[in-house]
Design a protein that fits this description.
This protein is mainly alpha-helical. The protein contains 25 helices and six strands. The chain has two domains: about 20-115 and about 175-200; about 205-595, Neurolysin, domain 3 (Orthogonal Bundle). A two-stranded antiparallel sheet has the order 1-2. It has a two-stranded parallel ribbon with strand order 3-6. Helix 5 (about 110-130) packs across helix 8 (about 175-190), helix 19 (about 435-450) runs antiparallel to helix 21 and helix 22 (about 535-545) packs antiparallel against helix 23 (about 550-560). Bound molecules: L-captopril and zinc ion. Zinc ion (ZN) binds near residues 363 and 367.
Length: about 600
């Protein structure tokens, strides 16, 4: 045995010729094949678990995740032998993609690998199954509670629903803590400082540069947010009385019409310009025109096909989930899937017939059309230029859902004139401008959690500090470290990075502005719809087909001519509203006291 080992050791130098780029290419070809196979198994299992949560589907999903994550870690280790090689840019990009492919990478210890996969699936399922049960026979799901937040105007009822939803997450706290530990261990094993460092390494710049970029964009947007915040705050005072806002000027989150205060379009009725009647209410129009779930999705698909994209495959309609099932637990949070490439595209969503979900359908289909556009790319390039692009695509289409478009498809009878502009812009600002601080803070929280700057003992405090600082909102009641409020937002237990949505909100206006120019639109930007314009479709498709094969500035340039992330497009879009808000806010205090 010893002689055998010795001869092996001695044999190494003569056989182990230094690896060449050709070896690296061969390794990568194999790695792509193996990741694709395991990725598919994981996608099918995960679909099963998220659309039918039970012990068996959880077991299968965790098992498949374990196999996939372990293989990724193993390959990333083996790939180190090529670290010193000068590789063609394409190939080097794939090696980085291999390291970044698992958002919570497997730690080296086999037992811990399994534990991490189990914890991930458990957290996801806990959120999906979450219910508020004030009494054992009266349980409410997130779907029910979101209806309350959207529709009720009774502060007591709102607070109860808001607080109630947050009863689902304290149980997640120890598991989340462990998740952070294990995921960091995996990231460190790949050479990253921690998981946050890994997440911020996918933007063709250093992690620190990325953080600085995000802050730079936020500074561009803040004056617009501050104006909107001050205006909405005053209108909420008009509705609920002066005492509802304290001396700090912070808005209670439960009054925003949304469970996390992340977008405020559901309280449009409370804040709409005085003395105007809104030109139309899309929710009512959808109901009046007898739109059901299927028809809503068909309408979304119709926009894409009008741009020249092929219709979705028959399997999309057979295999997607559009309605919340009555007989089983599911993760209702909307998502889009390419379970088996373009032949098996699906969305999973508990659709309600309202404006918010009409927009979300476009968002989700954007993912599916993107997935199909890059299907011919090799495995590691089947993704968007960076994750913000994937999130932006469908929203870029939804921005083009203007009154002019709605009239074309028969959803409204009359297009409001220029006098309706402020109404329309305010509605969009409640959706998009209100979102940005939230889009930023979710990962600010996580970056500090992963880096250890925020200790588990301060998880909740750190969350609310950020909410106060960036959103200018506050919790409905006093929160303590017995709570785990971050766990009541899907992307925390679901382990989905969030900065992508902040980026998407910037990119989508850049895309929209450039595409409207291509379309030859004149007049105010927000009235532009490129429905039916095949040249617009081609421009988008060319960018989407690049997948992740090129650094993102190349993709951005292909679509917009710009190589930089740039919030001026949003600012331009909302310029008339900003002027109007500032007029309304005259003599009013702007801003809030965060501490
Ligand atoms: O999670 C989503 C999509 C699925 S990728 C529905 N969004 C974020 C959220 O709901 O918090 C879209 C906007 C922000
Ligand atoms: Zn999305």
């Amino acid at each position: 045995m010893i002689t055998h080992l010795l001869s092996l050791l001695l044999a190494i130098p003569s056989h182990a010729a230094a690896p060449t780029p050709v070896d690296a290419q061969a390794f990568m070809d194999k790695a792509e094949l193996s990741m694709e196979t395991l990725g598919r198994r994981s996608a099918f299992s995960s679909w099963m678990q998220q659309t039918d949560i039970n012990y068996s589907t959880e077991w299968l999903a965790a098992d498949a995740d374990n196999a996939y994550s372990a293989e990724a870690a193993k390959l990333a280790h083996e790939a180190r032998q090529y670290d010193k090689l000068k590789l063609p840019a394409d190939l080097a990009r794939k090696f980085l993609a291999l390291k970044l492919t698992v958002t919570s990478p497997a730690p080296p210890d086999v037992k811990e690998q399994k534990e991490l996969s189990d914890v991930k699936v458990w957290l996801d399922s806990m959120y999906g199954k979450g219910k508020y049960c004030p009494t054992p026979d009266k349980c409410q799901t997130l779907n029910d509670l979101e209806d309350v937040l959207r529709d009720s105007r009774d502060p007591k009822v709102l607070l109860d629903a808001w607080q109630g939803w947050r009863t689902i997450s304290p149980v997640m706290r120890p598991k989340y803590e462990r998740f952070v530990e294990l995921s960091n261990r995996g990231s460190q094993d790949l050479g990253f400082k921690d998981t946050a460092d890994l997440w911020r390494s996918g933007y063709d710049m250093t992690p620190d540069q990325f953080s600085a970029e995000v802050d730079r964009l936020y500074v561009q947007l803040k004056p617009l947010y501050d104006s909107l915040h001050a205006y909405v705050r005053r209108r909420l005072q008009d509705k609920y009385g002066k005492d509802i806002i304290g001396a700090d000027g912070l808005i209670p989150e439960q009054l925003t019409g949304n469970m996390w205060g992340q977008s405020w379009e559901n309280i449009y009725d409370l804040v709409k310009p005085p003395k105007t009647t809104p030109a139309f209410d899309l929710t009512e129009q959808l109901k009046k025109n007898k739109y059901d779930e299927n028809k809503m999705v068909k309408a979304g698909e119709g926009f894409f096909t009008s741009l020249g994209f092929d219709p979705l495959p028959a399997t999309f309609w057979e295999r997607s989930l559009f309605t919340k099932p009555r007989d089983r637990e599911v993760v209702c949070h909307a998502s889009a899937w390419d379970v088996e490439n373009s032949q098996d595209l699906r969305i999973k969503m508990c659709i309600k017939i309202n404006t918010e979900d009409f927009v979300t359908i476009h968002h989700e289909l954007g993912h599916n059309f993107y997935q199909r556009a890059y299907e011919k790319q090799p495995y590691f390039f089947r993704g968007s230029a960076n994750d913000g692009f994937h999130e932006a695509l469908g929203d870029t289409i939804a921005l083009s859902v203007t009154p002019e478009y709605l009239k074309t498809v028969g959803l409204i009878d009359k297009v409001p004139g220029a006098e309706g502009d402020i109404d329309l812009l305010l509605q969009k600002a409640l959706e998009k401008v209100a979102f940005q601080p939230f889009g930023l803070l979710v990962d600010k929280w996580r970056w500090d959690v992963f880096s250890g700057k925020t200790k588990p003992a301060d998880y909740n405090k750190a969350w609310w500090d950020l909410v106060r600082k960036y959103q200018g909102l506050k919790p409905g009641n006093e929160r303590t470290e017995k709570d785990f409020d971050p766990g009541a937002k899907y992307h925390i237990p679901g382990n989905t990075p969030y900065a992508r949505y902040f980026l998407a909100n910037v990119y989508q206006f850049q895309f929209y502005r450039a595409l409207c120019k291509l379309h030859g639109h004149t007049g105010p930007l927000h009235r532009c719809s490129y429905y039916g314009d095949k040249a617009v479709g081609k421009r988008l498709n060319d960018m989407m087909a690049m997948g992740a094969s090129r650094p993102w500035p190349d993709a951005l340039e292909a679509a917009t001519g710009q190589r930089e992330m740039d919030a001026t497009a949003i600012i331009e879009y909302f310029a008339p509203l900003k002027a109007w808000l500032d007029e309304q806010n005259k003599g009013q205090a702007i801003g809030w006291k965060a501490d």
